[in-house]
């Protein structure tokens, strides 16, 4: 069904949207090409506003009409980030224990390539590698991708990488 132009006494096909209101609503009317050109020529978003209202609208438009804070505001994102960066609160012993298990391993080029294929950092704990592998299997399994052979090949590569790391980690750490 074709829509008729929403202009007085026009019976052309209305194919072009024109807003009904200034509030950025999704309400519109359909006009033919001739009348949408005329509508656009005469359209003034700021009609009915005084100079101060126009200035405030344009000022607010610079921040996408969202409230802003001064940098000195106590809950300003960047100030909070900066203050946290300056705090020396991280526990070095905890950090050391997280990477202490790496001393047990000597990773070869195949291991490093396997870490890369799985998209994890070299020396990550085995439990984290297992979690990542499970996510990748779900993502690339052919049943989840309409039997696409490309995903099947990708899954084979991921499985080989996982097996490589499993052999490297085997027996060296309580997983």
Report strand %.
Answer: under 5%
**CATH fold category name of one domain:** Helix Hairpins
Largest sheet: 2 strands, antiparallel
Q: What multimeric state do the chains show? A: single chain
Q: Estimate percent helicity.
A: 40-55%
Radius of gyration (Å) = 31 Å
Major sheet strand order: 1-2
End-to-end gap: 66 Å
**Average predicted confidence as pLDDT:** 80
Shape: elongated
Helix and strand string, N-terminal first? EEHHHHHHH
The helix/strand class is mainly alpha
Q: What is the number of strand segments?
A: 2
DSSP summary: helix tally: 7
Poorly predicted ranges = none
Do you know the CATH architecture of one domain?
Orthogonal Bundle
Properties at a glance:
175 residues; mainly alpha; Helix Hairpins; two-stranded antiparallel sheet; 7 helices; 2 strands; 5% strand; elongated
Question: How would you characterize the overall build of this protein?
Answer:
The protein has 175 residues and is mainly alpha-helical. Among the domains are: 1-43, no CATH class; 103-169, Helix Hairpins. Helix content is 49%, strand content 5%. It is built from seven helices and two strands; from the N terminus they run E-E-H-H-H-H-H-H-H. The chain has helices spanning 33-42, 51-61, 77-86, 92-99, 109-118, 126-140, 149-169; strands spanning 16-19, 28-31. A hairpin with an 8-residue loop joins strand 1 (16-19) and strand 2. The longest helix is centred in the last third of the chain and has 21 residues, at 149-169. It starts with 15 loop residues before the first strand and ends in a 6-residue tail after the last helix.
